[in-house]
Design a protein that fits this description.
- The protein has 334 residues and is an alpha/beta fold.
- The protein contains 15 helices and eleven strands.
- Helix 1 (2-28) packs across helix 3 (59-69), helix 10 (231-243) packs parallel to helix 13 and helix 13 (288-299) packs antiparallel against helix 15 (316-333).
Length: 334
């Protein structure tokens, strides 16, 4: 009983700190509450996120603000076609001492941090993109046969421009699957854009303070995994992920429109993100609405439409929403 009471108290305390972090981020990243929530979700789940939006919508500003608010050491890499893996990971150089002896010395690349912004990640070649694969999955890199751990915690927030496709290299499915969520960054509404205009064209810039430390974020990630999840939510997550695979048992909308569907990592991501969704809402356990809310961010980059579906003008968001609605109705009837 004491353990349960302590867990409730810890979750409520974490919810308060997250509310403070949201308020602090909103001072500099104005009018995009859903984007802020999803980015915080990725961090407290211990995962990575890809932000998809047009230039000038504040993606870089968001990541810079996050590194301050969450108490993380952040680095930024501008991905370009001529970027090489060593530019990200680092390299060994040959040093000569005063006595003439020579030895190799490793110079760390920008990946050795706690929060890495990979700006326009699809502009780099596949060879360079793949340099992040081990870093994202294992939180370490292997250089010259030596395993080198990265920062603790380690998160990648990548950005992509959804319109400009000339000179870009789409991320492979295996790498997309390593992003916990895809965050679509829309245009702000009129009132938010007015606030942005007034806040960013004056002589001062809103300052933000650290709300978390790196250790507190690690503790939050551990606490999140202790949040209870009801059996009905577990079954709904499994039903939703499995129904999005275009096999014989899938709903018609999936079989007719989806070329390939999500793997088990999607179910793992949903299990974590629905907890974070509840936590950000001030609740102690996730609900079916949390599964609906997180379905698109978790699944849209893990699925692909067929050519015929794209020709008909179908969207992956509509397919996921329809599948989630069907699953919700089945769960309700049961």
């Amino acid at each position: 009983m004491t353990n349960a009471t302590d867990l409730v108290a810890d979750i409520e305390t974490l919810g308060g700190k997250l509310a403070e972090a949201r308020a602090s981020i909103a001072k500099r990243f104005i009018g995009q509450d859903a984007v802020v929530d999803l980015t915080l979700t990725a961090l407290i789940c211990g995962g990575h996120a890809v932000l998809v939006g047009l230039p000038g919508l504040g993606k870089t500003r968001l990541v810079d603000t996050l590194s301050t608010v969450m108490g993380l050491n952040g680095n930024r890499i501008q991905f370009t076609p001529d970027l090489m893996p060593a530019d990200i990971l680092g390299s060994e150089v040959l040093d000569q001492a005063a006595d003439g002896t020579r030895a190799f010395r490793f110079i760390e690349g920008p990946v050795f941090c706690q929060l890495l912004m990979a700006d326009e990640i699809n502009r780099a070649s596949p060879r360079t993109q793949s340099a992040l694969l081990q870093a994202m999955q294992e939180k370490e890199v292997t250089i010259a046969g030596e395993h080198r751990p990265l920062g603790t915690p380690f998160h990648v927030l990548a950005t992509q421009n959804p319109i400009e496709q000339e000179g870009t290299y789409p991320l492979p499915e295996a790498q997309l699957d390593r992003f916990l969520v895809q965050i679509d960054v829309p245009y702000p509404d009129r009132d938010a854009e007015r606030d942005i205009l007034l806040a960013t064209t004056g002589t001062t810039d809103e300052a933000v303070n650290a709300v978390f430390s790196a250790q507190e974020l690690l503790d939050a990630q551990t606490l999140l995994r202790r949040m209870p999840v009801g059996e009905n939510i577990v079954e709904m997550i499994l039903d939703l992920v499995r129904s999005c695979r275009p096999d014989a048992d899938a709903p018609d909308i999936i079989r007719q429109n989806v070329g390939w569907g999500p793997g088990p990592r999607a179910a793992q991501a949903l299990m974590l993100t629905v907890r974070a969704s509840a936590l950000l809402d001030g609740r102690l356990a996730p609900s079916t609405e949390d599964v609906r809310r997180m379905a698109i961010p978790v699944l849209e980059h893990r699925m692909a439409l067929t050519f015929a579906a794209r020709a008909r003008g179908e969207t992956i968001q509509n397919v996921i929403n329809t599948a989630a609605t069907l699953i919700t109705k089945v769960e309700a009837a049961a």
